[in-house]
Design brief:
Layout (H helix, E strand, L loop, with lengths): L4 H7 L3 H24 L1 H16 L11 H34 L12
Length: 112
């Protein structure tokens, strides 16, 4: 499926996720700079090891080659992971509650 960003924005899809992802840029540079402030030499070594590790992971090409890009990747990955978990909880909560107490009336668990 190929949906344009314009159509996604028009539909309001992923609006909350996009707000979270946009926050990432606000702290990535600051967080990475804190690593450099604490120990610039070890940060350089970590970046070299990251590049080497990712280079050996297979044929996938990546631009993740610095503390900055690693923090950004992990932050956005976390945002997606949290969104999926929230959606799963939203859709499955009634069934989970019922599974925990099968004799309980489902009416009192509607609206999670």
């Amino acid at each position: 499926m190929n949906i344009s960003r314009k159509d996604i924005e028009k539909a309001g899809s992923l609006a909350e996720l996009n707000k979270q992802v946009n926050l990432v840029a606000l702290f990535v540079k600051d967080a990475a700079n804190r690593f450099r402030d604490i120990n610039a030499d070890k940060t350089i070594i970590a970046e070299l090891r990251l590049k080497d590790y990712l280079r050996r992971c297979g044929t996938v090409t990546t631009t993740t080659d610095s503390v900055d890009s690693w923090i950004q990747l992990m932050s956005v990955t976390g945002d997606f992971h949290d969104t999926i978990l929230a959606f799963t909880r939203l859709t499955a909560m009634t069934d989970v509650v019922r599974w925990r107490n099968i004799k309980d009336s489902m009416e009192k668990h509607q609206g999670f």
